[in-house]
Amino acid sequence: MKILKSGRRRMAMLAPAFALALLPFSTGTANANTSPGWGDDRPDVIWDCNNGKTDLCQYHEVSAWTQLGKRRQVGNPVYNCTGSRDVDVERWWTTSRTTTYSFQQETKVEVSAGFEDKLEMGVKASSSQTEKWEVGRTSTTSNKLTAHVRPGMAGGYWFAPYWRKSQGYLEVHYGKRKHGHYFWYYPGRGSRGVEINTPVFNSDGEMKGKWYWATWKC
């Protein structure tokens, strides 16, 4: 019994010291920095820009292009599984897209309204009369389409929007040194680690893209 008591006493004395020894490691993990690709040896520029902790947070566009995006189903499918005749359904189909931001070109991070403004200032404006974009705007398209579905079949519409893809980097200034520097460039000066995808719309305000119709057996 004496051995058990002394053993417990020794563990009780060691426990606080053991916890203190682990504390620096538990608070300094690689996941603490929310700027993708950056560890704790660099400032968390994304968090700082989101929370107004910088003197400057400016996006610089390095390259940009327009490309057709992935298809996404619009509305509910039309089913004619038990019918004995063709079904024609005339319906207005509507879909919308809005600007998305990603960092290191693969990790999406939530950005605040103020941070969005700073990102959008670095995106070059539209220079075409027939193809336009406006960062931060939600673009919508509607189309009156007729669905033709044979008996035993179902059908649905998909829409693929055109995206204006902008890639660049962030220039961040601090009022006092952070990790030894006043200025930081995320993820590197001249890099393309920040990506802003903006839906393209036509001069009439409708979002630009392609509609697809597909049918399949029930």
User: Helix share of residues?
Assistant: 10-25%
Low-confidence stretches: 1-30
What does the main sheet amount to? 9 strands, antiparallel
How big a fraction of the residues is strand? over 45%
Task: Note the gap between the termini.
Answer: 74 Å
Strand runs, count: 11
Q: In angstroms, what is the radius of gyration?
A: 27 Å
Structural class: alpha+beta
Helical element count? Answer: 3
The general outline is elongated
Mean pLDDT: 84
Spell the H/E element sequence: HHEEEEEHEEEEEE
Overall description:
- This protein has helices spanning 2-27, 45-50, 113-120; strands spanning 56-68, 72-80, 87-97, 100-103, 107-108, 131-133, 139-149, 153-178, 181-186, 194-202, 209-217.
- The protein is α+β, with helices and mostly antiparallel strands and 218 residues long.
- The strands form two sheets. Strands 1, 2, 4, 5, 6, 8, 9, 10 and 11 form a nine-stranded antiparallel β-sheet that branches. The chain has a two-stranded antiparallel ribbon with strand order 3-7.
- The longest helix has 26 residues, at 2-27.
- It is elongated.
- Residues 1-30 have low confidence and may be disordered.
